[in-house]
Amino acid sequence: MTDLNGLIVFVETFGCQMNESDSERIAGLLVAAGARLTDRPEDSQVTIVNTCAVRGKSEEKLFSYLGRLRSLKKKTGLRIVLAGCVAQLHRDRILDRNPEVDFILGPDNYHLLPELLERRLGRPRVFTAWSKDWREDERRLSLRRSPVSAFVTVMEGCDNFCAYCIVPFTRGREKFRPLRTVLDEVRILAGQGYKEIQFLGQNVNSYRDPDTGAVFPDLLRAADEIDGLEWIRFITSHPKNFGPELAEAMARSRHVCRQIHLPLQSGSSAVLERMKRSYSREEYLEKTRVLRSLLPGICLSTDIIVGFPGETESEFSETLGALDEIRFANIFSFRYSPRPHTSAAKLKDDVPFGVKRRRLMDVQQAQKAIQTRIHEGFIGRTIRVLCQGKSKKDGRVFSGRSEGYQVVNFRSEADVIGRFVQVRITSCGPYSLRGELAESP
Ligand code: 5AD
Ligand code: SF4
Q1: Which of 122, 142, 254, 306 is the S-S candidate for 359 at Cβ 3.0 to 4.6 Å?
Q2: Cα 136 from Cα 5, distance rounded (Å)
Q3: What pLDDT does residue 440 have?
Q4: Tell me, what's the pLDDT at 441?
Q5: What is the pLDDT, as a whole number, of residue 135?
């Protein structure tokens, strides 16, 4: 049995919800082995940096952060573990240029951490092997940051190889968690008082239970039956695998939220084809119509990339047109950056930086106006909100999410974290709603 004997550990996370969830897993694993957590690298004996490689900018941020840790290491002697996608992808570059890093661990190797840290092995040590099979053992130890909403991973990896995307090279091929263990974890979380579950996977729609062959809509139907759970969400869905069976499972369920993140990436069929997304603009629009007819009021969100190689002004304007037509409740938008190993990296990155920057601003401006109008439509309505936390500045201002995943801020004299409250919306901005409690909690 490993004993880390009170070792003080800090975990920093860059990137997506999958990384956040992995960091919760790493923290749980280390605490179970006797470590203690701190929230400042200055106080730590070991700092673990869980990294993201999805865009060029995420990597730049990481390398400047590592520079700061290097100076800290000179003062305090802390050990540094580089985990996650950058570790998997750039192991050789890190070995060459970042001598401050003691261990390099790819996403399939976190279970090794307690032993590595206990044995104080020499450095740098590199662990980037893939495992084809699902590793279950350490997941139940996860130390979740939120007492209200929990991530539950159902699959990892991706087989899609979209032309711009590095994920298949950092996370490897798809592997699926057995349905039985997914449901066991959800039952435990519901018993612990969690109100919301967010199922995670790079492409949850391709889920297939390795034991029974059950698919994602089966998983949703089974989770919907679990007592105590109020809201169920999932991310991310690939539009090409999004079919009517999933929309119907959502519509028939009692607890699956009327909200979905469905990355469009571009509103131009020609660009989508070059991106190897396997759907056209029209097919995507049709899916949103099906969703809206089966689930009236559903909130859609999406990811958009501007400046993909060869994107013309008129192709770009089709993206703006799609935003206008679909009216997403929220979008995440990015300037294209070429990533190693991807097929788009072989194309000329020919949209000038200034043009990408202007297109990104255009997309964000257009969306800001759309969101403001959507939010204005909520004024005067009373909606159900799951309270997640409170403002750091004013202890009586609480923050939660609506069923559609909109941020809702409101005042309350009583502490309502972890509870559902009815909030009457009184004002809004483009990124959040504000209101007051419609009934005393
Ligand atoms: N350049 C810009 N954005 C990218 N994304 C993924 N790869 C790239 C890239 N090379 C965006 C996509 C994806 C989100 C997680 O990041 O929109 O859905
Ligand atoms: Fe990347 Fe495409 Fe896989 Fe999503 S579906 S992780 S964008 S390759």
Answers
A1: 306
A2: 25
A3: 63
A4: 60
A5: 84
Domain count of the fold of the chain: 3
Q: Name residues whose C-beta falls within 8 Å of residue 384's C-beta, 6 or more positions apart in sequence.
A: 402, 403, 420, 421, 422, 423
What pLDDT score was predicted for residue 349? 98
Tell me which residues have their CB closer than 6 angstroms to ligand 1: 54-55, 164-165, 263, 265, 303, 305, 334, 336-337, 339
- Residue with CA at minimum distance from ligand 2 atom 1: 165
280 and 252 assigned to the same domain = yes
Q: Are residues 155 and 287 in the same domain?
A: yes
Same-domain pairing of 159 and 288: yes
Q: Say whether both 155 and 109 belong to one domain.
A: no
- Do both 190 and 211 map to the same domain? yes
Q: Which DSSP string do the residues of 304-323 spell out, in sequence order?
A: EEE--TT--HHHHHHHHHHH
Look at ligand 1, atom 13, and give the residue with the nearest C-alpha: 303
Judge if 31 and 173 occupy the same domain: no
The whole-model pTM stands at: 0.94
Same domain, 412 and 328: no
Identify the segments of the chain with pLDDT beneath 70. 440-441
Sheet with 196-200, edge to edge strand ranges: 149-153, 196-200, 231-235
pLDDT of residue 140: 85
**Residue 390 one-letter amino acid:** K
Verify whether ligand 2 is closer than 6 Å to residue 55 (CB atom): no
CA–CA separation, 93 and 240 (whole Å): 35
The H or E element containing residue 181 is helix 179-191
